[in-house]
Specification:
This protein is α/β, with parallel strands linked by helices and about 300 residues long. The protein is built from ten helices and twelve strands. The strands form two sheets. It has an eight-stranded mixed β-sheet with strand order 3-5-4-9-10-11-8-12. The protein has a four-stranded parallel β-sheet with strand order 6-2-1-7, with helices on one face. Helix 2 crosses helix 7 and helix 8 crosses helix 9. It is globular.
């Protein structure tokens, strides 16, 4: 049994079916799912998605992203190439394709089904229910996502470019997805209102009347964990700047399935990657540190190196 039909849960279910196991997967919502997600798929993430056999179920080919622009402060940005190229793929398209592939392999996918933590004796349980929301917790974060229609994207945005912008209390990423829309996704401190965040940067302010809100979540933490049987955001919630969440979720699902069936060890982060991601997240959220970064020597080389190291 798998609880949660996002990338981690579905990847686990697909691999289990390929290895001959019967699988019942509970997803409390119905597809297509609306999720807050940067929708940036690294080369390794795209390779994992293809290895699961979902290409034929995608409604369209992912956008190709070969350039990135990081803005440290208004008027101060660094452009660098993304090599190898990344992909832009909406969560709706990816989740729906994974669900179709799982069903094609004979998996039992129960939509609108809330897992009650009851199960048949002897059944293996995988918890992939996504990031937990912590009511009343301090230092929690807000995520928000919207889209700009392809005909409304201004010159200088979209195309094959990933754009990262500083905003009030956090940062924003923008890139195209498979149907040509521009995805706009930001993470910020929980007490920052979405309209104030959009107004905090001139690029977003100019786009605000063209952005169609899509999904939001509030009250989560970036956290690590080591609990067995938990995968994806249920185990570790990565900051989006370098976390490469979609790729990591797919990899975690595949690894968990191979652990259950083949006995292979599940790769567990020793914390170093997560610590690095949190440092870079803190830099992007701090106006003072961002300002210092604009004077950093070799910053273009360092950013390109970080991309190849964390997402290649």
């Amino acid at each position: 049994m798998i609880a949660g039909g996002g990338p981690a849960g579905l990847a686990c279910g697909i691999r289990l079916r390929e290895l001959g196991w019967g699988v019942v997967l509970h997803e409390r919502r119905t597809y297509p799912l609306r999720k807050v997600c940067g929708e940036f798929l690294s080369p390794s993430g795209w390779a994992r998605l293809e290895s699961l056999g979902v290409s034929g179920h995608l409604a369209g080919q992912p956008a190709t992203i070969v350039r990135a622009r990081f803005e440290f402060a208004p008027g101060s940005a660094v452009d660098f190439p993304l090599s190898p190229a990344a992909r832009g793929l909406s969560r709706e398209a990816m989740d729906s394709a994974l669900a179709a592939r799982f069903r094609e392999l004979g998996g039992d996918l129960l939509e609108g089904s809330e897992w009650t933590e009851s199960f048949e004796p002897g059944a293996a349980i995988v918890d992939a229910r996504g990031r937990p929301v912590e009511v009343g917790a301090v230092e929690t974060w807000r995520g928000w996502k919207g889209y700009v229609d392809s005909r409304d994207i201004p010159p200088g945005l979209g195309g094959d470019l990933l754009t990262m912008l500083p905003v009030a209390g956090g940062y924003c990423g923008m890139s195209r997805v498979e149907d040509g829309r521009l995805g706009v996704c930001f993470v910020s401190a929980r007490n920052a209102a979405p309209h104030a965040i959009l107004d905090s940067h001139p690029v977003l302010s100019g786009l605000s009347d063209r952005i169609h809100p899509h999904a939001a979540i509030s009250g989560f933490r970036f956290r690590g964990g080591r609990e067995p049987g938990r995968i994806g955001d249920r185990l570790r919630v990565w900051p989006p700047l370098v976390g490469d969440g979609m790729s990591r979720a797919l990899g975690a699902g595949i690894a968990e399935a191979e652990h259950l069936v083949l006995g292979r060890a599940v790769p567990r982060d020793d914390g170093r990657d997560f610590a690095l991601a949190m440092v870079l997240h803190a830099v992007m959220c701090s106006p003072a540190l961002r300002s210092a970064g604009r004077w950093l020597p070799w910053r273009r080389w360092l950013l390109a190196k970080a991309y190849r190291t964390t997402r290649g």
